[in-house]
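Re: your question about Oxalurate catabolism protein HpxZ

S., sorry for the slow reply, the queue was backed up all week. Below is exactly what I fed in.
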Amino acid sequence: MPQINDPAIVTELTALYLTYEKALVENDLATLDNLFWDSPDVLRFGVTENLYGMEAIKAFRQGRSTKNLERDISNLKVVTFDADTAIVTLEFQRLNNNVLRAGRQSQVWRKLPQGWKIVSAHVSLLPG
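Result:
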């Protein structure tokens, strides 16, 4: 039976997620690309887009606005299911068109031969 929330793996994934968050708000595309699974099967559902495959994710990032990427995160939760699978969820607040908006994010991480990679991601804003 796999161990749920092995403390060492939770610590490792929390650090990786914080690397992701820093890269996100600094628009560090190389780090963001490196943290995602380089596969046509990776996906990212965003606020206004459904991206299938690494090439679509890269194209989105290269074309998006880099204004107001900063956000305050809360309720960061890392849950591991074995030595190779984890879910990261959180809530955030950020300015969107000068309006403070609340949102949610979830990521599925998988340990592959290349290391831990995001294989599925979802970002959404709450109404109002």
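The CA atoms of residues 105 and 123 lie 4 Å apart. The domain at 7-125 is CATH 3.10.450.50 (Nuclear Transport Factor 2; Chain: A,).

Happy to talk it through on Thursday.
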